[in-house]
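4.2 Preliminary Data

To establish feasibility before requesting continued support, the project team ran the inverse folding procedure on a target of 589 residues. The structure was first converted into the token representation described in Section 3, and no sequence information of any kind was made available to the design step. The complete token record follows.
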């Protein structure tokens, strides 16, 4: 969105005159606004059109993490944002620097992660001339940002940046891009101090109270339900609503399931926890959803990986759908009652209304007995043990045992490694499981782990990767070393693009679709070259020892575990099937 800079500069000038003003360059203004917003660190890669910005940054107290690739900068900022709730900030130059951010921006957009991406641009006079390293990044990113700006006048710069941070935080969070020509960074103008600090997430307009008719109706439906389920997603975490969800489940006695993006909002050890649902979810979660008479969806969007074939999804359930994004409600599955609200506000309102009206849940003994029968019928996470091969499930079960008493941040890449991590690492606390859900971005894991470690340098941060995804952004090992952010990497190495291989066996009976890695680097030697500690493991008897070494080392360390090549992620909902028709092994070929 290109700003009308004259109007922007004049509008509100009287109010600003009452505040302290001084002359600064555009680059200095950018840094001043970042300091107002309490930004502690930015992730970036310098270039010609952001040299003025980097010069101003050097004279500030804000830290900078120099990455190996611009995509890594955005993933790192995204990881930072997911565990802090504050926008991650990115600096990149124009042209390829800007275009290299697109995958990371779309990743954040799909998962509602707040970012402010600041791109350099060629001078205003050269716009549209195909100048060196010019590209129309605002048009390129229109579909994957909440809003974007091209700032042509230094007089509009500070207020535009403040607005960018507000947009990134407010409502459904997401990425915002601000494109700033080099001459605007060099130009001088009056900088007015902010009249109000907006460094906190705002949900203005999305609060709801206990007397709202829709909340009252939701409570009536909940009290009447005999087979209810809370279906929760990433919106619970984005709204900082984990505490409200736990209180709501305790009060109502309803069972709880979650999408991949919502893991950790409800403790995996809780007796009402059904496990993750969807394509690779537990049998009891999917069957409970199928047999429910009421589904209360909170901050989840009924994506295809959850519903399976829509024609067979939850055929007897009324649906209450709570989401801050109006367009999500009824988009895929028709809601009997839609509530547009911040998830935490809505849950707190339901709790207050439930208590106020003295609502009582129906006797759910029979419902829990039925859920237990699903568990007895199928142990969703059972797998065949092997004395010779290392099963990836065993690796993650062992890791879970070793970290269950520790406060650990788990970051995953995408593919089989991601699904096994979601299944076998039992998350007890919110915002401890970070993954790319909506876009499914291979290469996300390592740079996102660096961002998480930057946010919480004293915490243990473990990145679970496959060999394919890790290879995509392995150059960020240099970033971890130069920034002194000792993350830990666990590679489940099966020498194949695992999820592609699994789907290929299912759909095309093992025809060759170029999914096998005929050559790959020696990841241990690669890590050692970057200055990391590293080891490899191909013996099931040594897995626990190697995992202990990974966990106990104070340094950046990589463990490359050679796991069974033909192991598939099970259970799964086959393509085109409803969520109650799960398979537990691939058909024999």
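Position-by-position output of the design step:
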């Amino acid at each position: 969105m290109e700003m009308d800079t004259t109007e922007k500069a004049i509008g509100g000038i009287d109010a600003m005159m009452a505040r302290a003003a001084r002359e600064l360059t555009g680059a200095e203004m950018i840094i001043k606004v970042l300091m107002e917003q309490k930004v502690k660190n930015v992730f970036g890669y310098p270039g010609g059109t952001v040299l003025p910005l980097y010069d101003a940054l050097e004279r500030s107290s804000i830290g900078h993490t120099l990455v190996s690739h611009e995509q890594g900068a955005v993933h790192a900022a995204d990881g930072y944002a997911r565990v802090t709730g504050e926008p991650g900030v990115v600096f990149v130059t124009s042209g390829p620097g800007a275009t290299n951010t697109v995958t990371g921006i779309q990743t954040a957009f799909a998962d509602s992660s707040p970012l402010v991406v600041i791109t350099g641009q060629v001078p205003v006079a050269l716009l549209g001339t195909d100048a060196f390293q010019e590209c129309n990044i605002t048009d390129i990113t229109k579909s994957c940002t909440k809003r974007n700006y091209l700032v042509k006048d230094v007089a509009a710069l500070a207020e535009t940046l403040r607005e960018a941070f507000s947009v990134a935080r407010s409502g459904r969070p997401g990425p915002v891009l601000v494109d700033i020509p080099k001459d605007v960074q060099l130009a001088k103008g009056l900088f007015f101090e902010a009249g109000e600090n907006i460094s906190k997430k705002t949900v203005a307009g999305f609060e709801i109270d206990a007397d709202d008719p829709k909340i009252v109706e939701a409570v009536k439906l909940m009290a009447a339900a005999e087979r209810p389920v809370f279906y929760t997603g990433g919106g619970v975490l984005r709204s900082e609503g984990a505490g409200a969800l736990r209180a709501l489940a305790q009060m109502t006695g309803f069972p709880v399931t979650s999408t991949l993006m919502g893991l950790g909002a409800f403790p995996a050890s809780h007796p009402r926890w059904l496990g993750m649902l969807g394509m690779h979810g537990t049998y009891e979660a999917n069957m409970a959803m199928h047999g429910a008479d009421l589904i209360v969806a909170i901050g989840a969007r009924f994506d295809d990986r959850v519903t399976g074939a829509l024609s067979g999804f939850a055929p007897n359930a009324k649906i209450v759908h709570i989401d801050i994004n109006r367009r999500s409600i009824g988009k895929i599955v028709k809601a009997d009652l839609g509530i547009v609200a911040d998830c935490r506000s809505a849950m707190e309102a339901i709790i207050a209304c439930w208590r106020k009206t003295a609502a009582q849940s129906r006797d759910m003994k029979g419902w829990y007995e039925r859920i237990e029968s699903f568990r007895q019928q199928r142990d969703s996470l059972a797998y065949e043990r092997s004395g010779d091969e290392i099963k990836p499930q065993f690796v993650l079960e062992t890791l879970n045992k070793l970290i269950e008493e520790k406060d650990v941040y788990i970051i995953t890449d995408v593919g089989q490694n991601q699904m096994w991590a979601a299944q076998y690492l039992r998350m007890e606390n919110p915002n401890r499981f970070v993954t790319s859900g909506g876009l499914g971005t291979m290469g996300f894991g390592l740079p996102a782990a660096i961002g998480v470690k930057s946010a919480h340098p004293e915490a243990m941060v473990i990145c679970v990767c496959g060999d394919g995804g890790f290879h995509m952004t392995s150059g960020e090992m240099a970033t971890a070393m130069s920034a002194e952010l000792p993350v830990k990497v666990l590679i489940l190495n099966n020498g194949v693009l695992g999820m592609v291989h699994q789907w290929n066996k299912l759909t095309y009976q093992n025809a060759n679709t170029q999914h096998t890695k005929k050559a790959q680097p020696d990841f241990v030697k690669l890590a050692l070259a970057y200055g990391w500690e590293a080891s490899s493991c191909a013996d099931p008897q040594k897995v626990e020892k190697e995992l202990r070494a990974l966990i106990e080392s104070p340094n950046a360390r990589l463990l490359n575990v050679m796991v069974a090549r033909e192991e598939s992620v099970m259970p799964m909902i086959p393509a085109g099937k409803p969520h109650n028709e799960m398979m537990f092994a691939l058909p024999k070929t």
